[in-house]
Design goal:
Largest sheet: 5 strands, antiparallel
Radius of gyration: 14 Å
Oligomer: single chain
Bound molecules: adenosine monophosphate, zinc ion
CATH architecture: 2-Layer Sandwich
CATH superfamily: HIT-like
Number of strands: 5
């Protein structure tokens, strides 16, 4: 855990959030500023900065995240209608929070719009 990281604090329940799903490896919660009717952030329960920081040791967390999407989709009601998953990595992608996270977007037809215009 990184004591200065807001998403570590959310995973640790040190600050409030709307968690919709969690297991040993994964925490999923509602984005504070949703850009779609359904906007969930899916994070590993350990501090991994971004996709550039994935290693043989921590990759198991990503495996579990991949498996969690279809569980979360049913919980938030987009399993039938579909959703988009976006992961911003680094400066050019506009990554604001330096804890690996996947945006799960749905609840309307998303067209070609991406998360940061
Ligand atoms: P990114 O630009 O990919 O780093 O996205 C960071 C996302 O985190 C943004 O969509 C923010 O709205 C969201 N966010 C930041 N702080 C919180 C928080 N405390 N709870 C929920 N979502 C947050
Ligand atoms: Zn963190």
């Amino acid at each position: 855990m990184d004591e200065n990281c807001i998403f570590c604090k959310i995973a640790n329940k040190e600050i409030p959030s709307n968690i919709v799903y969690e297991d040993e490896y994964v925490c999923a919660f509602k984005d504070l500023n949703p850009v779609a009717p359904v906007h969930i952030l899916v994070i590993p329960k350990i501090h991994i900065q971004d996709l550039e920081s994935v290693t043989d040791e921590n990759a198991v967390y990503l495996t579990h995240i991949q498996q969690a999407f279809s569980k979360i989709s049913k919980i938030v009601g987009v399993d039938k209608t579909g959703y988009r998953v976006i992961c911003n990595c680094g400066e050019d992608a506009g990554q604001e929070v330096k804890h690996l996270h996947y945006h799960m977007l749905g609840g309307k037809n998303l067209g070609l719009k991406i998360i940061h215009d």
